[in-house]
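Thread: quick sanity check before group meeting

JM: Hey all, I'm pulling together slides for Thursday and realized we never actually wrote out the predicted structure for the chain we discussed last week. Dropping the sequence here so it's in one place. If anyone has concerns about the input, flag it before I start.
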Amino acid sequence: MQRRFFHTFDTLRFLAFFKVFLLHIPIAGFPIFSYLKAGGGIGVVFFFVLSGFLISYIIFHEKETTGKFNLYYFYLRRILRIWPLYFLMILFAFATPYILSIVKINSSPEGYEPAWWMSCLFLENYKMLFTGMEPNVSPLGVMWSLCIEEHFYLLWGLSFLFIKLKHVPVFLGISVLASIIANGIFHYQNWQTIEISTNLIYFCAGAIPAYLLTTKKEAFEEKINRIPIFLKALMLVLCLVFVIVSPHTSNDWRWLYEPIIFSVLFACLICIVIPAENYFKVSDSNILSRLGVWTYGLYLYHTIVINLFYQLSLRFQINLSQFLPAILFFMASLVTTIVISAFSYYLFENRFLKLKKYFY
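JM (edit): ok, ran it. Output follows.
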């Protein structure tokens, strides 16, 4: 049985990136924009849920169809997808002080001096956790999520090398409970939730529909298709509303209910677009789907571009609190990020991605 390709996921990837992009735009003085840009980390949460689905589906599908799981090939495919651009960005980050000195642009005085060995070993998130700060150079500040992704690959690959499919629900249930407990501990210790244990609930949320799709494919898709369109549309609206409103709420129990709600909403969102034919399917030729193919580059390049344009705005004394300069800054940052990411994908990343076909 051939593995499925899931339409619409690229569009969802781009929308998740766009939420992160909005957060990093240094534009103030516009209340509506400030309200909408809050909670950019929610985009990362969706990436985790989606990754939990896709990685779990790959593993479960292989175990279901072949009766085994090739851990070596799995890790090689992940390496080919993540490592080339990741290490290119690390090289750029550590070369940035020298580049800035040449072009006479001031470097940021805020944040910690990164350690190359922690960056290279995918431990940047723990450096941020221990220091309570972000690195003083882009794009290391967004690489904490990639470190968590790598830790997830290690955990999932090693775990399901031994865990049988029939035991997956028990494993996921224990993992969700452990993640909720970890979130409580981190909350009361006032630690940042930027490591694998506190985010494990999101990966598990994505793994649940992956398990159902693998083991109960026909029945699972049939039940999804039988859900009335208006209920699916209502769920999408609720998801959008919670994404916008949630960052502006605060109470003592937010650490508990917010991860659970986001896990459920994003898992439901994935379920809605899983069927090959559905009302909410977005064509691969759609502009958002095309942009979604470059999401990895968009995510890593955007802070570099934004910081560059911000430094230029300071040099030329451009007031970003005025409407026209703010709009131009926003569009220039977005378009430049897209162009760089497209070149990066086709001229660099895709050369490694083509090698993945040898490891299936």
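AS: nice. Residues 40-286 form one domain. The radius of gyration is 21 Å.
JM: adding both to the slides.
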